[in-house]
């Protein structure tokens, strides 16, 4: 099947994000940022942005509006620009090393996608993580994740399921070392892989349109939720029923897994005062 243009671009974006070597903000740093969202560490942000732009150079991406869009979205997704952060347009042009025109084009696109809210003649505010919005996203993702698991069960090879097992092993190591940031990234890879194994490009496209917001929420609440040992147990059980060729069981377990995680994350967000915009 031929992918639509936007889907090809999204796949390229995911590859670029996955290859980028950036410094992810820690939970302690994020807590400090929440206490003073007006203060922007331009130096740290600039270092991360330019590291990401260097990755775009290697991938041959030269279009300035696209570079500005990808770099800004990357910073928001990984909480380098935390929820509620106010950023002046002048600051962002300096950080990106670009003129105002491509930066404005990128910001308009990000506003349309719900990542920022523009302030006329000034800059933008990073969109907060709102529990009600997140609930709606999870309701969609829970259903589609179940479908992906069902399809993957009948389409994945034993070797592909082995890769899921290896991701779980890496998650266990990350948890043992107390590296919750690495665990979050591996958790994202686990679910991403199952959708890939479903071999359904349209399903992939819908999931991709929502997955970045879920990743940001998981990262934002990582220090506010119980240690994710239960998630690892559930991941093992999901792969087990996939190996035994039980698509309906895989579907139900993935939906239950997402439902539990959703409740934990939304409860954490509602217990935390988010900056309003």
The average pLDDT is 86
Q: Please compute the radius of gyration using only Cα atoms.
A: 19 Å
Number of helices: 12
The low-confidence parts are 1-37
**Helix content bin:** over 70%
Report, as a whole number of angstroms, the end-to-end distance: 42 Å
User: What kind of sheet is the major sheet?
Assistant: 3 strands, antiparallel
The shape, in one word, is: globular
Succession of helices and strands = HHHHEHHEEHHHHHH
Across the major sheet, the strand order is 1-3-2
Structural class: mainly alpha
β-strand percent reads under 5%
Count of extended strands = 3
Write a concise keyword list for the protein shown above:
277 residues; mainly alpha; three-stranded antiparallel sheet; 3 strands; 4% strand
Report on this structure:
The chain has 277 residues and is mainly α. It contains 12 helices and 3 strands; from the N terminus they run H-H-H-H-E-H-H-E-E-H-H-H-H-H-H. The N terminus is likely disordered.
Summarize the SSE layout with pairings.
Elements (H helix, E strand, L loop, with lengths): L4 H15 L7 H9 L6 H17 L5 H14 L8 E3 H8 L3 H13 L3 E4 L3 E4 L4 H25 L2 H19 L3 H18 L3 H20 L8 H15 L3 H25 L6
Antiparallel strand pairs: 1-3, 2-3
Helix pairs in contact: 3-4, 4-6, 7-9, 7-10, 7-11, 7-12, 8-9, 8-11, 9-10, 11-12
Question: Brief description of this entry?
Answer:
The chain is mainly α.
